[in-house]
Write a structure and sequence with these properties.
By secondary structure, the protein is of the alpha/beta class. Helix content is 39%, strand content 21%. Strands 1, 2, 3, 4, 5, 6, 7, 8, 9, 24 and 25 form an eleven-stranded mixed beta sheet that branches. Helix 3 (71-94) packs across helix 21 (664-678) and helix 4 packs parallel to helix 5 (143-155). The radius of gyration is 27 Å and the shape is elongated. It comes from Comamonas koreensis. This is Glycosyltransferase family 2 protein.
Length: 679
């Protein structure tokens, strides 16, 4: 009865939401179909809250499928930034004894006067005074540009100018700006965009503390007048494979000046995709890449953007840029266009000598095993593999008969395991029984069903890279439209949960979600062992599963220990399978089916959980699976920079760590100020 009354009380609100939806849908008949699908997916995924956010994005082609925080949240953020954060940062700047100078590189060409003024004003408003603004004009044909620049330089001694006499393109102008720089570190700024007031200080903090070769920040996409927020770009820690799948690093980006010059700066043969090319070239040689998890850049979208006018040319150029990157990196692969604009696929050839042991534990459920085995045999044509079924004390005669049939036919090797259920122990035991040499193990649940040919080939081609320890697949619920697994976020819901869980896909199963996370191969901290491909040498190095974790989080622990030794863990969306786990199981509030395992995992990985998953973002809601931006927006004096360091490509290389941005005394002072305000 109480639930019925609650539903009735909510009905007027839902009807108002529906009425608003109909109004906005009717306002743009050309987009009726696509907008209807977006609203329906939003409703199914997150109810009225997500529907409300999605309504705000109607009419904006750059807006994401997954909703963003509304514009008033950005205004609230700006107010809190000015009152709570900037005073703390100003105090720290005043205490610096050896500040570092930062150069800001800006190429200009026929810039709108209002946008040019606003861009320069955003630099002059920086709370960190140790900067120089290096502007190179590429022979603008509109006379106001040269006169405005000369007037601005006369007013501000920290502005340096290069006024070109002939037009050579944005790459040439950017290199002329680089030639003006005298600072050890440079950042890039487009002539029509804006910096947040703390942006250059955040860069200086990292340069002084982290000694990076490259860094990048988060940004906000706004309308040309800056009044409407279209999207928040909250980026993960540096992900080499994500960068190859999608140019997810855009603004703000900065580089060590000497390194940039040693690489020859921008490729002047490129008129588009030149920044993507530069980031890729720097990433190939950089030892330390830092992510600043804070909104430091306002990207103003407008209809004159070359990326929108020349999409086909952008795709062709970026694909060629990626191919050159792969060739320089010694990766035997072909770059190809992906499922959507600005998405790409790296197509590897499987090297000789790769062979996979597919390990499927089960107790009874012969029909599920039959479905799993038949689907694997039907969809894997170009990868060498053997099927290993682990029969854990099965009692059903039909299942026993089927397992005997598999053994008799030679379709699979069936091994008998006895003893209490311990997922980790069963898989470790299975590996120890193998007598044939294998390069990889695929740990596979008995309720997995392969959908399309090539899934194992995709996973194996990625996992043959010596720097990749394991690869996980995209898993769908039996309805074939709902995501069950797109990687694992460590720390979600307190311990760990799957990315994208319950997110509905349209009929063509192409949905870029947040910054393409569903369709891009990328690094994650963990993947599920429901379908997990792992290198044998990585498995041996960490001594397999920890058998103390009998039921829960053994796979996440396996991934984190692999990550800890420097291997990468990848999510591969090209491998899409069904996981016949019931979509109705969900996650009941407060329910934990394996509390002892949860407690052990949380104790062992407490530091990791406290710092946060580097491929997640502190701005996201931790009790949500679909990259929902928290409101109020994340706004603190201290940020945990995410550091990626490595010794070189082609070997185990990655180390992820954190670096706090505000000194301990100032953090204490800020906390005291918060207490006083609260009182």
């Amino acid at each position: 009865m109480s639930s019925t009354l609650s539903t009735l009380r909510k009905l007027p609100h839902k009807l108002r939401q529906l009425g608003r939806s109909m109004y906005l849908l009717a306002a743009d008949p050309r987009q009726l179909g696509s907008n209807s699908r977006r609203l329906w997916r939003a409703w199914r995924t997150g109810g009225t809250q997500m529907l409300k956010h999605q309504l705000l994005s109607l009419g904006h082609p750059d807006a994401p499928t997954v909703p963003v925080a509304p514009t008033d949240a950005w205004q609230d953020y700006q107010q809190r930034l000015a009152s709570e954060v900037l005073p703390v940062l100003r105090a720290e700047i005043a205490a610096l004894t050896q500040p570092v100078s930062i150069s800001i590189l800006v190429p200009t060409y026929n810039t709108d006067p209002a946008m040019l003024t606003a861009m320069v004003d955003s630099v002059r408003a920086q709370i960190y005074p140790h900067w120089e603004l290096c502007i190179a004009d590429d022979a603008s044909t509109q006379p106001h540009v040269r006169s405005m620049l000369q007037e601005l330089a006369a007013q501000e001694p920290r502005i340096k100018l290069h006024l070109g006499e002939s037009n050579h393109g944005v790459s040439h102008a950017s290199n002329r700006a680089l030639a003006l720089a005298t600072s050890p570190f440079v950042v890039l700024l487009d002539h029509d965009d804006l910096l947040q007031p703390q942006a250059i200080y955040r860069v200086a903090q990292s340069v002084m503390a982290d000694d990076p070769d490259m860094l990048y920040s988060d940004e906000v996409l706004v309308s040309p007048d800056g009044k409407q927020v279209l999207q928040y770009f909250h980026r993960p820690a540096f992900s080499p494979e994500y960068l190859r799948s999608h140019p997810y690093i855009v603004h703000m980006v900065g580089f060590r000046t000497a390194l940039l010059r040693s690489l020859g700066g921008f490729d002047e043969a490129l008129g588009i995709s030149q920044d993507y090319d530069l980031i890729l070239r720097v990433s190939e040689v950089a030892s330390r890449i830092v992510h600043l998890p804070e909104l430091l850049y306002q990207w103003r979208t407008h209809t004159g953007s070359a990326g929108h006018d020349k999409m086909a040319q952008v795709m062709a150029t970026s694909t060629a840029v990626l191919q050159r990157h792969l060739d320089r990196s010694g990766v035997a692969a072909r770059s190809a266009a992906g499922v959507s604009f600005n998405f790409f696929e790296t197509q590897h050839q499987i090297a000789d000598g790769q062979r996979v042991a597919i390990i499927i534990p089960t107790k009874n459920y012969g029909s599920l095993v039959r479905q799993c085995v038949d689907s694997i045999r039907a969809t894997v044509q170009h990868a060498a593999y053997d099927l290993i079924v682990i029969d854990h004390d099965s009692t059903e005669q039909a299942s026993l008969d089927y397992f005997a049939q598999l053994q008799q036919e030679g379709t699979a090797t069936v091994l008998r395991y006895q003893g209490p259920f311990n997922f980790s122990a069963i898989n470790n035991w299975a590996v120890r029984q193998l007598t044939r040499p294998y390069s990889h193990y695929l740990f596979c649940n008995n309720d997995i069903e392969a959908l399309e040919s090539g899934w194992l080939e995709h996973m194996l081609s990625q996992c043959q890279d010596p720097s990749v320890g394991m690869v996980g697949a995209q898993l769908l619920y039996p309805d074939r439209t709902s995501i069950q697994h797109a990687g694992v976020c460590v720390g979600a819901f307190g311990i760990a949960e799957h990315y994208g869980k319950f997110l509905k896909l349209p009929p063509d199963r192409v949905d870029i979600a947040f910054m393409g996370r569903l369709v891009s191969t990328h690094e994650v901290s963990a993947v599920t062992a429901a379908c997990l491909l792992m290198r044998k040498d990585a498995f041996d190095a960490i001594d397999g599963y920890d058998e103390k974790l009998a039921v829960g989080f053994g796979d996440v622990d396996l991934c984190l220990r692999t990550l800890q030794l420097g291997w990468r863990v990848l999510y591969c969306p090209q491998a899409t399978l069904i996981h016949h786990e019931s979509i109705t199981r969900g996650k009941a509030e407060g329910y934990d089916p394996h509390p002892e395992d949860s407690a052990l995992f949380a104790s062992r990985w407490r530091d990791f959980l406290d710092q946060g998953d580097p491929y997640f973002h502190p701005a996201f809601e931790v009790r949500h699976t679909c990259w929902l931006v928290r409101t109020p927006l994340h706004c603190q004096p201290s940020i945990n920079r995410r550091l990626f360091s490595r010794s070189g490509l082609g070997q185990r290389m990655q180390r992820l760590s954190y670096s706090a941005s505000v000194s301990e005394p100032l953090q204490q002072a800020a906390a005291a100020a918060d207490t006083q305000r609260a009182a």
